[in-house]
Amino acid sequence: MKTIWIIDDDPIFTFIIKRMIDLSSFEHKIYVFTDAELALSKLQKLVQTNSNEIPEVLFLDINMPVLDGWQFLDELSKDGPFPVIHIYLVSSSIDPIDHKKAEEYGVVKQLLVKPLSVKKLEQIKADLNK
Amino acid sequence: MIAGTHTNIDKRKKNELLLTKYKDLLDRTNEAALIGTWEVDLLKDELTWSAVTKKIHEVPPGFKPDLETAINFYKKGDNRERITHLFNQAIQTHKPYDDLFEIITAKGKIKWVRSIGIPIVKQGKCVRIYGTFQDINKQQVDRIKIETLLEETKGQNERLLNFAHIVSHNLHSHSGNLTMLLQLFRMEGENIDNTIFPLVEKATANLEETVVHLSEVVAMNTLTQEHIKRINLLDAIEKALINLNIKLKKAVVKVQIPKRTMVNAIPAYLDSILMNLLTNAYKYRKPRVPLEIIIISKKIDDHVVLNIQDNGIGIDLEKYGSKIFGMYKTFHPGKKSRGIGLFISRNQIETMGGKITVNSMPNLGSIFSLRFKK
């Protein structure tokens, strides 16, 4: 079964996005990580073994303590070719620097600014099949 | 013969008078500039101070200084150690010095001085050191005041950046969560068909909007001149037009910009300004008239001026001219105006050392001019 990973240190937001995904037409299994380091090491292992458990979609918060979204991507890209994952950065900031930076990271599909909506998730779902 | 002698005396007298005149002038200049002179004869072990030097030390005109008392006027510690070292070095290695010191005058006042010493060497030996002694207390105190002020401002700026971060991130993430929770509540909840729930939704939407405005305003102070880069103007405009291609699908857009036009700009700000002006052109287009946008650039001296012209509804500048770039100023009822876009654009272009101006006539359209450094 295809999976979606949510990496965000805000438990209220992870609750919301999980519930929104449930309400949308996604049929993925959802994994939530509030600890980015833990998520990173788990993902690195999956990538190394080329496991079929590598998530199809990743919602990654930019602003997190210890390991932020950018560092997460940097660490992941150190291990050679980047895995095929639809990566959506999620941020509540409208800081133009973040938008510029997101453009520079080729692996990022889009920078989503909170608040999200079920409608927006449906768009993402539709993009997956393109 | 006699006449000749007379002439010589006359000439010498004239020269003496001239010399006295210049000496007098120099003395007065030195006094006004608070520059004293001093001289140490190392062979005779004699120190002489000029009148101004004595005045700076606040000693009476008859005061007879010697080397030891002179050094002891320097503030104990770093100042005295430094002057001793420099003075000895001038004697031994014949190196002149020029440095700032704090002295304590005979009346106990702390003063900043600039002391210059120049060694005179005869047959490989330093025989004399002369120099100037200048009271720079006022300048130095002012300088220190300015430096302290600058430090304080830096601190305040840092706090402003923290504030910007709290607003643009923390506050926004809380209000965003609220908005999303209400959305879920509406989708899943029963019994929400009362009067209060729509009001909570409205209040939350307002809060969200205000937080967005607030974060836009504070975000604009986070980028500075250091982020300025050389940017190809045509590329930036083409990018903005691609981003808006859905809105501008039916519009006629003419772009006349030489391919190699470069401007000094902060990339994120330039994008934001172009998006804002083009979105405005779309938003304030005339109903039932095809929208036309003309984008032209021209070089004026060391500037590049970019004109964005539309055939929209225009603005009455006589009524609103001074307010158009202000915050929360809107001029067209019924449009979804927020009164923040042009305020931000103006701040952004000014941060880049440029300018924005507008020319507009109601019912004819508007021309926004951006001035960039080339």
Shape of chain B: elongated
Order of helices and strands of chain A: EHEHEHEHEH
N-C termini distance of chain B? 76 Å
| CATH T-level fold name of chain A | Rossmann fold
Helix % of chain A is: 40-55%
Q: Would you give an account of this structure?
A:
- The complex is a heterodimer of chains A (130) and B (374).
- Chain A is α/β, with parallel strands linked by helices and 130 residues long.
- Chain A has one domain (3-128): Response regulator (Rossmann fold, 3-Layer(aba) Sandwich).
- Chain A is 43% helix and 21% strand.
- Chain A has helices spanning 11-23, 36-48, 69-78, 96-104, 118-128; strands at 3-7, 29-33, 57-61, 86-91, 108-113.
- Chain A is globular, with a radius of gyration of 14 Å.
- Chain A starts with a strand and ends with a helix.
- The mean pLDDT of chain A is 90.
- Chain B has 374 residues and is an alpha+beta fold.
- Chain B has 4 domains: 1-29; 34-135, Beta-Lactamase (2-Layer Sandwich), CATH 3.30.450.20; 145-219, no CATH class; 225-373, Histidine kinase-like ATPase, C-terminal domain (Heat Shock Protein 90, 2-Layer Sandwich), CATH 3.30.565.10.
- Chain B is 48% helix and 24% strand.
- Chain B has 10 helices and 12 strands.
- In chain B, the strands form 3 sheets. In chain B, strands 2-1-5-4-3 form a 5-stranded antiparallel β-sheet, sandwiched between helices. In chain B, strands 7-9-10-12-11 form a 5-stranded mixed β-sheet, with helices on one face. Chain B has a two-stranded antiparallel ribbon with strand order 6-8.
- In chain B, helix 7 packs across helix 8 (267-283) and helix 8 (267-283) runs antiparallel to helix 10.
- Chain B is elongated.
- The N and C termini of chain B lie far apart (76 Å).
